[in-house]
Design brief:
The chain is of the alpha/beta class. The protein has helices at about 35-40, 55-60, 110-115, 130-140, 165-170, 195-200, 230-240, 265-275, 290-300, 315-320, 335-355, and strands at about 5-15, 20-25, 30-35, 50, 65-70, 85, 95, 120-125, 145-150, 175-180, 190, 210-215, 245-250, 250, 260-265, 280-285, 305-310, 325-330, 330.
Length: about 350
Amino acid sequence: MIRWRKGEVVRIRREWPGAVELDVAVPEGECRALAYPPLVGRPEPGDEVLLNTTALAMGLGTGGYAMVVAVPNRLPQDPVGPGHLVKARYTPLQATVLGADEQDSPFHDVLSEADDLAGMPVIVADLHSALAPILSGLYDGAPGPRVAYVMQDGGALPAWFSMSAARLRETGWLAGVVTTGQAFGGDVETVTVHTGLLAARHVLRADVAIVTQGPGNLGTGTRWGFSGVAAGEAVNAAGVLGGRPVAALRVSEGDARERHVGVSHHSLTAYGRVALSPADVAVPQLPGAFGERVREQAEPLAARHRLVPVPVDGLHEALRAAPVKLSTMGRGLEEDLPYFLTSAAAGRLAASLLS
């Protein structure tokens, strides 16, 4: 189940908040590795490291790193301070964090009473790659709102893995990251998506929340076997808490897999079968036959939700101005423009709800 290697750090390639990318010498040669200093300490050139090379050996696109499990000869100091939430529970790298909703938190009293999002728009998407384009559409329509990213645990567990989330936080496009469930490493830690949304509203004072899983979703090509099913549950959480769910469709013109061309079966299942609370579904007014296909495929969702046509004029320019590189499944902005326009349309729709 796990491929183990010992290696020696050759050089540091780059780093961003919570993560360091390395070149490490292993018996097979050099490999690219990733370390999370809050978990294992900060490796330096010459350090011996213990690696999990499973994702690297499998050639995973998103997670194709060797992961640093330990720096055996230079262990980090024990953590200090409060924090009793255990995440990645009962794995070798389980970690304790201070949850916003636990008794030792300064926000415990606020969250123990909080039960209402007061109509806050909650934009829900299948893939982490939708985060930046949603923000592009949102800020194009409503400059200045405070936005929180609520990260589900269906993909990467450490929020530190996401370079885009770190950059969006640095540029002020995000007021903060809330990690929920088994995910960790956000500005705010919570136990569930429900308390994550409440923390976005009552701790980070967000005007809008965006909910997606972390990078590296899991799918099997079956109707129910994909981690994005949780998008439907996020709609339910937003609805039961008095939020305004906005569903971002997953749309592609460039995916080689027919089940994801047009409106992905992920969106049709998550929103059409799992989501019981009504949502505003942003249906982009894409041009031509492909746009008509998207509108026809989305039509069955009208049985449960409100389908809202959203113009996409001006969104291409807004996407080009994003402060991070836009990419989904290895495809950039111009390689799968409908995907990014559709995500941005959800942001534009949410912006209209703020006025």
